[in-house]
């Protein structure tokens, strides 16, 4: 007898009720068509200015129809994260990538908060790997992450013990966080301790930014000596994750976009694992949310129309557009497997010669790509080594690695 929990869907596609909005849009459409009809019927009684106005109004009407059609069928997805835990006792691993490039324009404290919010997610710690990519090669950013890794040993248990919702420390401690939490003496004591520890972390990073990094670019910081921000060799540190992973799912996040929902991975897996076939869902895009904006958002900086209406409208047609940060990807799609090839024989692509042409000369990387493309079930049960050594990681991360690869040729052709 089948377990009833395994037959339940992981998500539900719900259509939004927008009857009033549709009625208003149809009324506007009738007015636009009436205006255009009047213009056409009155051409002979007016001159060139009338024709020019007609062309402008026709172009406006065309763009308006495209916009309305894009948000006509708005949908929402209701996910059931607890069903993922019931149906998938062996959860697939997830790799999380945070990108930054400039410690001045993107202060390291922002990156630290984003990383801490990712490390504290409600997901098995051995299934998560967090990587920070710093194109600027900043020793300040590296120092900040080293200190953040020490703070994380206190912050992560605190968040999970008290079920903290907002797990970016700067946001959590900036509001009335204690009012909605446990008011027990133990919680208040732990809260005060965590706040003090975070303030000390922020002070260390601030002092380091003023030029007093207590390392003098020696030891493990020696790699940052005499480097140029726009021209330097690849530097690979593996401190928290000693093993380079190759998870079947990848999350990319900008350094200033912390996670505001600790169950975000489970919500994403509801969609990625709940579809009938992998080819039905290549990625899951979460919209951005903005805080501390002006009341009523007079300048549209919070992009409400884009995310809340157009985004959900496009999702009702085929799927949401890729918006950059906050997106979960299937790694095999990133590796170039198209939907048409999901149900076909791909053994030809997995030959050593084709793998080297596509992914380069790294044996570790090509072997890992072959496992992902072949759909090996063992990948979803435990993290796999992407690179067997830091030397191999440096090889793949180098800017010259792309030469001779299919990806490198495509990238150069575009630029």
Structure commentary:
The protein is of the alpha/beta class. Helices cover 45% and strands 9% of the residues. The chain has 15 helices and 7 strands. The chain has helices spanning 4-7, 19-41, 48-70, 81-87, 108-119, 139-161, 169-174, 185-209, 264-274, 304-317, 331-334, 352-359, 363-373, 390-397, 406-414, and strands at residues 11-15, 75-79, 94-100, 128-134, 249-254, 283-285, 327-330. The strands form 2 sheets. Strands 4-3-5-7-6 form a 5-stranded mixed beta sheet. Helix 2 runs antiparallel to helix 3, helix 4 (81-87) crosses helix 9 and helix 6 (139-161) packs antiparallel against helix 8. It is globular and about 85 Å long. Mean pLDDT is 83; it is low at 239-243 and 379-387.
Helix content: 40-55%
N-to-C order of helices and strands: HEHHEHEHEHHHEHEHEHHHHH
Low-pLDDT regions:
239-243, 379-387
Count of DSSP-assigned helices: 15
Extended strand count: 7
Strand line-up in the sheet with most strands: 4-3-5-7-6
Strand content: 5-15%
First-last Cα distance: 58 Å
Structural class: alpha/beta
Radius of gyration: 26 Å
Overall average residue pLDDT: 83
What is the 3D form?
globular
Biggest sheet architecture: 5 strands, mixed
State the main characteristics.
alpha/beta; 7 strands; 415 residues; two-stranded antiparallel ribbon; 5-stranded mixed beta sheet; globular
């Amino acid at each position: 007898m089948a377990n009833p929990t395994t037959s339940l869907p992981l998500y539900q596609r719900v259509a939004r009720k927008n009857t009033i909005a549709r009625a208003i849009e149809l009324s506007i459409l009738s007015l636009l068509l009436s205006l255009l009809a009047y213009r056409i019927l009155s051409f002979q009684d007016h001159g060139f200015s009338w024709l020019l106005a007609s062309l402008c109004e026709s172009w406006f009407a065309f763009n308006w129809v495209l916009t309305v059609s894009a948000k006509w069928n708005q949908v929402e997805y209701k996910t059931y994260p607890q069903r993922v835990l019931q149906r998938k006792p062996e959860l697939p691993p997830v790799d999380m990538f945070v990108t930054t490039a400039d410690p001045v324009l993107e202060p390291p404290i922002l990156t630290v908060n984003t990383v801490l919010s990712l490390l504290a997610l409600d997901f098995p710690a051995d299934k998560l790997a967090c990587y920070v990519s710093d194109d600027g090669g900043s020793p300040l950013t590296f120092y900040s992450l080293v200190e953040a890794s020490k703070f994380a040993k206190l912050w992560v248990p605190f968040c999970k013990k008290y079920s903290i919702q907002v797990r970016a420390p700067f946001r959590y401690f900036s509001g009335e966080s204690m009012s909605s939490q446990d008011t027990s003496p133990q919680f208040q004591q732990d809260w005060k301790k965590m706040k003090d520890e975070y303030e000390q972390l922020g002070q260390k990073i601030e002092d380091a930014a003023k030029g007093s990094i207590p390392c003098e670019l020696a030891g493990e910081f020696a790699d940052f000596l005499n480097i140029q921000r726009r021209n330097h060799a690849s530097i690979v540190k593996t401190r928290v994750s000693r093993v380079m992973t190759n998870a079947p799912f990848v999350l990319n996040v900008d350094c200033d976009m912390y996670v505001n929902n600790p169950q975000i991975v489970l919500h994403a897996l509801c969609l990625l694992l709940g579809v009938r076939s992998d080819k039905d869902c290549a990625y899951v895009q979460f919209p951005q949310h903005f805080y501390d904006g002006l009341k009523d958002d007079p300048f549209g900086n919070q992009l409400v129309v884009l995310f809340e209406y157009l985004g959900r409208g496009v999702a009702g047609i085929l799927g949401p557009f890729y918006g950059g940060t906050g997106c979960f990807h299937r790694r095999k799609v990133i590796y170039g497997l198209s939907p048409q090839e999901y149900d076909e024989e791909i053994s030809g692509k997995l030959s050593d010669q084709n793998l080297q042409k596509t992914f380069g000369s790294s044996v570790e990387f090509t072997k890992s790509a072959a496992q992902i493309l072949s759909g090996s079930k063992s990948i979803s049960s435990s993290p796999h080594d992407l690179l067997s050594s830091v030397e191999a990681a440096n090889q793949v991360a180098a800017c010259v690695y792309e030469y001779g690869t299919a990806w490198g040729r495509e990238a150069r052709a575009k630029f």
